[in-house]
């Protein structure tokens, strides 16, 4: 499923803001084993020493993250309005769209996004570049309509123009409560430890309305492939974002999401209001062709696992495993733990191919000094 990161970057951003975060970040987490010296999702960076010092987090940010996590645990359903603006610094366009999103725990979601009907021809908007402090002028355009549905087992992209539905099956290990492990989990607060394993974060400040401004830099490679950094404006009352801004890796696009009228745990009322007796997560029944998209075979992430456990995971996925002696462990508890893999995690690789694992050797014992 990681293939979707490359094929559907914009889709992943959609899935973020509409709560349809149903694609797992790591297949290693599904094996039910905890990597030595790492976290339960196998989040150690390839080649990184597990004994690296932990990142220092300010007490103020830590308090915000803890409250964000606690608030998110209480959410059983969520719906609201949102607007998306994509600023393109190559063509200097600002594409606008707006719509509604729906989420029902643990893994159902929907987003309906329409072009902005209020956009008039020849309309321009101006924003100030935060780095150069210079104004940038963009031509405002209405973006294309899009619709997404997640029923817990598959994600569906509905093309109203061509009357087609692209189906992307969700791996079993990525279903259910693993929704928070999706590529862009900024609508929900993850467990604090998982958040800090995955992002470098800092509290930029608090505005006059009491909202928290948070900046996040991805540590995981699959996140960094979609965005270079993110800014989140978080309500100090509901601990839900009022806006999210994503900066693409190339530095040529900025995508802003603005959230309004968010309703928490009121699924019964909004389903009846907008859908009547219909199921909001049901696909159109007639006139559409469903196209199943098959994901490519990908190498699981096993960095941080004990060598025997790592080998079992890869062999179960159909790979031939080779081991390579690496450097000596700085701490004896990391002896024979994998710290690098080739090909790297999530690389496309057919079954039957070889994966080489580099492991820490026993730590060198200090020789007693003679008097």
Give the end-to-end Cα distance, rounded to a whole number of Å.
Answer: 62 Å
Order of helices and strands: HHHEEEEEEEEHEEHEEEHEHEEE
Strand content: 25-35%
Shape-level CATH architecture of the largest domain: Clam
* CATH topology-level fold name of the largest domain: outer membrane lipoprotein receptor (LolB), chain A
How many strands? 17
Estimate nothing, just give the exact number of structural domains: 2
Instruction: Name the CATH class of the largest domain.
Output: Mainly Beta
Low-confidence segments, ≥5 residues, pLDDT <50? 1-53
Helical run tally: 7
Largest β sheet strand count, sense and barrel closure = 14 strands, mixed
Structure notes:
The protein has seven helices and 17 strands. The chain has 371 residues and is α+β, with helices and mostly antiparallel strands. The protein has two domains: 3-293, outer membrane lipoprotein receptor (LolB), chain A; 307-361, 2-Layer Sandwich (Trypsin Inhibitor V, Chain A), CATH 3.30.10.20.
Brief write-up:
By secondary structure, this protein is α+β, with helices and mostly antiparallel strands. Helix content is 16%, strand content 35%. A hairpin with a 5-residue loop joins strand 9 and strand 10 (212-218).
What keywords describe this structure?
single chain, 371 residues, alpha+beta, outer membrane lipoprotein receptor (LolB), chain A, Trypsin Inhibitor V, Chain A, 2 domains, 14-stranded mixed β-sheet, three-stranded mixed β-sheet, 17 strands, globular, disordered N terminus
């Amino acid at each position: 499923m990681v293939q979707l990161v490359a094929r559907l970057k914009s889709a992943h951003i959609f899935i973020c803001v509409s709560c349809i975060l149903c694609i797992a970040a790591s297949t290693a987490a599904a094996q039910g084993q905890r990597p030595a010296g790492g976290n339960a999702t196998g989040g150690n960076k390839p080649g990184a020493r597990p004994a690296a010092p932990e990142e220092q987090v300010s007490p103020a940010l830590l308090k915000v993250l803890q409250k964000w996590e606690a608030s998110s645990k209480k959410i059983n359903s969520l719906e609201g309005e949102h607007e998306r603006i994509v600023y393109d610094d190559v063509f200097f366009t600002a594409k606008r769209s707006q719509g509604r999103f729906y989420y029902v725990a643990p893994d159902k979601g929907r987003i309906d996004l329409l072009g902005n009907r209020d956009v008039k021809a020849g309309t321009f908007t101006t924003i100030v570049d935060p780095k150069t402090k210079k104004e940038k002028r963009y031509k405002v355009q209405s973006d294309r309509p899009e619709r997404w549905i997640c029923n817990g087992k598959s994600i569906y992209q509905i093309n109203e123009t061509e009357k087609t539905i692209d189906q992307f099956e969700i791996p079993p290990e990525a279903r259910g409560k693993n929704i928070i492990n999706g590529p862009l989990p900024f609508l929900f607060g993850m467990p604090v430890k998982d958040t800090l394993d995955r992002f470098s974060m800092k509290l930029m400040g608090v505005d006059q309305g009491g909202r928290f401004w948070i900046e996040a830099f991805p540590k995981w490679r699959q996140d960094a492939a979609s965005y270079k950094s993110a800014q989140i404006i978080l309500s100090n009352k509901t601990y839900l974002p009022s806006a999210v801004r994503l900066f693409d890796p190339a530095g040529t696009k900025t995508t802003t999401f603005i959230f309004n009228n968010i309703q928490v745990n009121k699924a019964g009322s909004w389903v009846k209001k907008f859908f009547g007796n219909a199921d909001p997560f049901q696909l159109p029944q007639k006139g559409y062709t469903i196209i199943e998209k098959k994901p490519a075979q990908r190498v699981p992430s096993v960095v941080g696992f004990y060598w025997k456990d790592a080998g079992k995971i890869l062999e179960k996925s159909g790979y031939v495993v080779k081991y390579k002696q690496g450097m000596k462990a700085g701490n004896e508890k990391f002896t024979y733990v994998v710290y690098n893999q080739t090909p790297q995690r999530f690389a496309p690789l057919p079954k039957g191919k070889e994966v080489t694992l580099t492991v820490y050797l026993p730590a060198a014992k200090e020789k007693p000094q003679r008097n």
